[in-house]
Design a protein that fits this description.
- The complex is a heterodimer of chains A (305) and B (449).
- With 305 residues, chain A is mostly beta strands.
- Among the domains of chain A are: 30-139, Immunoglobulin-like; 144-237, Immunoglobulin-like (Sandwich).
- Chain A is built from two helices and 15 strands.
- In chain A, the strands form three sheets. A seven-stranded mixed sheet of chain A has the order 5-2-1-15-14-11-12, with no helix packed on it. Chain A has a four-stranded antiparallel sheet with strand order 4-3-6-7, with no helix packed on it.
- The radius of gyration of chain A is 41 Å and the shape is elongated.
- Chain B has two domains: 1-230 and 394-435, no CATH class; 232-378.
- Chain B has helices at residues 2-19, 23-49, 64-87, 95-119, 128-131, 138-169, 178-187, 195-228, 240-266, 275-306, 309-319, 323-342, 349-376, 387-390, 396-419, 425-448.
- The chains are: A mainly beta (305), B mainly alpha (449).
- Chains A and B meet through helix 2 of A and helix 1, helix 6 and helix 8 of B.
């Protein structure tokens, strides 16, 4: 058969183009090929410390898959009030491009008139990378997780409030939160709902085994709230139904005495068979007795010749 | 009266088998006794010296003896199964086969367990097994099953022999020694072939034949469990019990075919053992070879696919050190019978017998490959030990005792067919009686019309 490859020039060119790996063309590692993504977030943690976290990643303008993290970049974190920057601390980005600063529970923040804490993260420019800066503002929400048995019902109560500069507590409302139980590899959602008038209550499901000591770790999370940002609260409680390790089945075949069912089954089987043997032998005796009663006449004999 | 004449004819026909012993038979019996004598000598050495004279060591604790035990017991169970089923057929052709099957059943269940005794290191402590049995152990189940089956098979065999003993007792002109005549009289338990006696005997034999089928299944399953309930690679398989049953039937049918061929040839019984017997047995063998091939493939395929280290080691041993044995046991052993039996033109008596012979050899090797390579590839690696402790090679002692077992089987078979006709005379009479009854019935209905 004669080849007519020339009739398909268009498809051939596409195949050739696909076969030529674009990666084999020398890459230019020029920073101008990249733009950067500078993400800033804050999480109020279970011990009431506050985590400030920056994610600093370079993005190739031409290849979306090429996203190298910016490693070793020094990030400064500030508390801002009326254009005044109060340095909270600094941290260098890890190999994953993450820089973290944990501020203790007793850290004092300056807040604006509405009670917001204004925070800023900054990366000062270098020869290769230009300056990056990101701001965010959050109110300091106090989230309490109470676990108590009320009338023998395991009840989870969440209270949330803010404290103003004069020390007055204001209950929070419309704060959506999700409550989980910590498992070995992930978290299992047990409830979702919104805090209203500073409180939210629900009954704990009964079906959790917990760890070998019967403890459950319950975690409530406010995720990316416009006013309060991210808040995590957790507590461990002895509410698990799994108090003892699972009793391992003993191999009954290794014990001194066999399980009773084995004796019963074997006895029935053997008795069934041996009784039948006895019945057969009894029948043979009856056959013999029948024969004895008959007279064995010589006419019954068969002559060979 | 008609039937009495027929009995006379049959006795006359089969009397040469019982009365005369040809020179060839004498040489045959002499040869078998010589082989057994060598086996007894080997046993004396083994008893005096211990198992050090065998190839069995710390790792491979089971060898030829267990292989022979499984093979013979498997033969017996399949014989019991086939014999039990044949009892329910009401066709004249079964009379030519039943006695062969029954004798094979009883002889193999008698000889098989002897190999277990040979395998026990401290034979002097054998009674401990009965004094302190562990009911949880499959070995105890097996002992119970074998003893029960042995007794059951003997009773069943005896029941089927009674009418023939009676016929022989009532034949005073048979040129037999007095003790044999007395023995026939004693064993015939005054069976006079009356309708009542016949009915009672038939009823008892029917129950026993059902029992024998059930017992064969149970006992053979228990034998398979000795292996499959342990965690040894290669043994711990759910398919073992059905596989053992099918394998047993495969070897059983094969041995029956070989026995039919030899008996037909030697005693010139072409009138009774006809080609259709071989064809029918060949069909059964064909189905069994397909089933067994499927089970074997399924078992080894699962082992290969799961890729467990111990199973992979075992497969390497089977396809490495035991390559030819494995190919013969699991490929050629199925392929040759399959080809011969599935092509109509090849289904001649000689070729069917050849296929059966290949099947028997393959099955024996298959049992060997189940026992020995598994023990050579345990879960815990064998280290710092002598080569002969890892790999098993049977010694002349084991081979002598194995051949002695086979010789004993042939010897007792020969002696038994010298004692009672190999073709069931009572079976033939029973069929003819049934035929006469049917004819009378037909005549009656015609005359009434």
């Amino acid at each position: 058969m004669k080849s007519n490859l020339y009739n398909h020039t268009f498809f051939i060119s596409i195949i050739v183009a696909l076969l030529v790996n674009i990666n084999c063309i020398a890459q230019q590692n020029d920073a101008s090929n990249y733009r950067t993504r500078f993400g800033f977030k804050t999480v109020k943690q279970a011990d009431n410390s506050r985590l400030l976290e920056v994610s600093f990643i370079a993005l190739n303008k031409e290849d979306r898959k090429d996203k190298p993290p910016v490693y070793g970049a020094e990030i400064q974190f500030f508390n801002i009030l009326n254009d005044e920057e109060i340095l909270l601390g600094s941290s260098k980005t890890s190999q994953e491009g993450i820089a973290q600063l944990i501020l203790p529970e007793n850290q004092k923040y300056s807040t604006d008139g509405e009670g917001y804490i204004n925070l800023r993260a900054r990366f000062n420019s270098t020869d290769a990378l230009s300056e990056e800066e990101a701001d965010l503002m959050v109110k300091d929400l106090h989230l309490d997780l109470n676990l108590a048995e009320i009338d023998s019902v395991k009840t989870v109560t969440l209270t949330a409030f803010t404290i103003d500069s004069l020390g007055f507590k204001t209950p929070a409302s419309y704060v959506y939160l999700t409550t989980y139980v910590k498992a070995m590899f992930s978290k299992k959602i047990i409830n979702e709902g919104s805090i209203s008038d500073g409180a939210y209550t629900f009954t704990m499901p009964q079906s959790f085994a917990g760890n070998p000591k019967g403890n459950l770790t319950i975690v409530s999370i406010v995720d990316d709230n416009d006013e309060y940002g991210n808040i995590i609260q957790e507590k461990t409680v002895h509410w698990g139904t799994f108090n003892k390790p699972l009793k391992q089945d003993k191999n009954m075949l290794w014990t001194k005495a066999a399980p009773i069912w084995m004796y019963v089954v074997l006895t029935i089987l053997l008795l069934g068979i041996w009784v039948n043997y006895v019945y057969t032998i009894a029948n043979l005796f009856k056959i013999k007795k029948d024969g004895d009663n008959l007279s064995s006449e010589p006419k019954k004999n068969y002559s060979v010749n | 009266m008609e039937l009495n004449n027929r009995k006379r004819e049959l006795v006359k026909e089969f009397s040469p088998m019982l009365e005369k012993t040809s020179l060839l038979t004498k040489i045959w019996i002499g040869t078998l006794i010589s082989i057994i004598s060598v086996g007894i000598y080997a046993f004396v050495i083994q008893f005096k010296e211990g198992h050090i004279v065998t190839g069995m060591r710390d790792n491979v604790v089971w060898g030829l003896y267990i292989v022979n035990f499984i093979f013979f017991v498997c033969l017996s169970y399949s014989g019991a199964f086939i014999s039990g089923i044949l009892h329910f057929f009401r066709t004249p052709w079964k009379n030519s086969v039943t006695r062969i099957v029954e004798i094979i059943t009883v002889l193999s269940i008698t000889i098989g367990p002897i190999f277990i005794l040979l395998c026990i290191g401290r034979l002097d402590r054998l009674y401990y097994l009965f004094l302190y049995p562990r009911i949880q152990s499959p070995i105890t189940w097996d002992i119970i099953a074998i003893i029960t089956d042995l007794v059951g098979c003997f009773i069943y065999l005896y029941l089927t022999f009674i009418p023939d003993f009676a016929i022989l007792r009532d034949s005073p002109d048979l040129k037999l020694p007095g003790w044999r005549k007395k023995l026939y009289k004693y064993l015939a338990i005054n069976f006079q072939d009356t309708p009542d006696q016949r009915k009672r005997l038939h009823k008892t034999t029917s129950i026993m034949s059902k029992m024998v089928i059930a017992m064969a299944l149970v006992a053979y399953t228990v034998l398979a469990w000795i292996f499959s309930l342990t965690l040894q690679p290669g043994w711990n398989s759910t398919i073992f019990a059905p596989d053992f049953i099918v394998a047993g039937l495969y070897s059983g049918v094969s041995v029956i075919i070989i026995a039919m061929y030899l008996i037909r040839k030697y005693f010139k019984l072409e009138k009774y053992i006809v080609k259709s017997h071989f064809i029918m047995a060949a069909m059964v063998l064909l189905v069994l070879s397909l089933l067994l091939g499927y089970f074997t493939f399924s078992d080894y395929f699962a082992k290969w696919f799961s890729h467990k280290v111990a199973d992979t080691d075992l497969l390497h041993t089977l396809f490495g050190h035991y390559f030819w044995q494995f190919i013969l046991a699991n490929y050629i052993g199925f392929a040759i019978p399959l080809v011969i039996l599935s092509i109509k033109k090849l289904r001649t008596i000689k070729l069917i017998t050849f296929a059966a012979l290949i099947a028997v050899i393959a099955l024996w090797l298959n049992r060997y490959l189940i026992v020995v390579p598994t023990l050579e590839t345990p879960y815990l690696p064998i280290q710092d030990t002598r080569e002969e402790f890892i790999h098993y090679t049977a010694t002349w002692i084991e081979w002598s005792l194995s051949f002695a077992g086979i010789a004993a089987f042939f010897l007792f078979f020969t002696l038994l067919i010298k004692f009672i006709p190999i073709i069931s005379m009572s079976g033939i009479i029973e069929d003819e009686r049934r035929q006469i009854k049917a004819n009378k019935k037909a005549n009656k209905s015609i005359s009434s019309k």
